[in-house]
Amino acid sequence: MAQRQTHRYDAFGLSISSEFEVAELRAGNERRPVDLAILDRDIGRDLPTKQDGVVFDYADPDGVVMAWPGVAAFRFVDERTIWARKYEEAPDKYFAFPLLGPVMAWFLTMQHLFVLHASAVHWEGRTLAFMGDKLAGKSTTAAAFIRAGCSLVTDDLLAIELAKGQPAICYPAFPQLKLEDVASQKIQVAGATPRPLVMEGFPKRQHALAQMTTEAVSIDCLVQLERGGDTPIFEPLSKADGPAALNRYSYLQRFGDASWSSDDHARHFGHCVTLAERARVGRLRIPADLDTLDATVELMLGVLRETPP
């Protein structure tokens, strides 16, 4: 059998070796020890059909299986290895969607990192994260901050380490924003290159950025995005509401069918409380009108100035 080509990437603080090309990721340092190996292998069971629907099997004795019919299937073999098998009919560009979403979120969670559904930007030694559900405006808001001189940390998947006695830090992902065409036309980000739509009907287009933050940075302020009103408003959350917001937007909630142990739940609850203690957590109401985003940026940069790094 011919030797498979491997690609080296850096993302989420990991050195990744992959037998699949993932154009979204940053080129990695081949001298670093590999933290995650993604191998092109038969996952050891029949690939589900479209009639079967998306599969999240946390009980398979040979390792958790996640599969998206018509795209790819994944098996988590051990703490360092994922087997993946693409469907023959699937375009290569589909592969990154599950890999850089739920698959990576599960892997990072298994590394005991705290993983949020959030985008984040870095500015003058401080990091601001935007939490929210799908289409809440996380990427659009991040784009406005990048236009104003901030740098991207991550878009959509935020990995945070909460070591005992240490500041909370987060790991950069890859230089890409997903934006609707209307938003990208309103918010011109210097050096951003729009890519073709991955599939017809998909609401967002990928935009490759010329640069981003590439080192681990502190996580200083996290806001829950809400739409409404004519002016942006920032409201700090209470000691009770802060951890609740972090819990709501954590990826652990998205893996609710997994058999979490009491230790897992205790660690997760501890992460929510600890992060709320080490960073500011608030609610950010932003108007729906994209023309008002400059006011949102001005407001939150002021909040960051008041937040010790």
Could you write a compact summary of the structure shown?
This protein has 309 residues and is α+β, with helices and mostly antiparallel strands. It has helices at 96-110, 138-147, 181-186, 241-248, 262-278, 293-305, and strands at 7-11, 14-18, 26-27, 36-40, 55-57, 65-68, 72-78, 81-86, 114-116, 118-123, 126-131, 151-154, 158-161, 169-171, 176-179, 193-194, 205-208, 217-218, 221-227, 233-236, 280-286. The strands form four sheets. Strands 3-1-2-4-8-7-6-5 form an eight-stranded mixed sheet, covered by helices on one side. Strands 12-10-11-19-21-20 form a six-stranded mixed sheet, with helices on both faces.
Give a written overview of the molecule.
β5 and β6 form a beta hairpin. α4 crosses α5. The strands form four sheets. Strands 3-1-2-4-8-7-6-5 form an eight-stranded mixed beta sheet, covered by helices on one side. The protein has six helices and 21 strands. It has helices at residues 96-110, 138-147, 181-186, 241-248, 262-278, 293-305; strands at 7-11, 14-18, 26-27, 36-40, 55-57, 65-68, 72-78, 81-86, 114-116, 118-123, 126-131, 151-154, 158-161, 169-171, 176-179, 193-194, 205-208, 217-218, 221-227, 233-236, 280-286. It is an alpha+beta fold.
Which features would summarize this protein structure in a list?
six-stranded mixed beta sheet; single chain; alpha+beta; 22% helix; 309 residues; eight-stranded mixed beta sheet; 6 helices; 30% strand
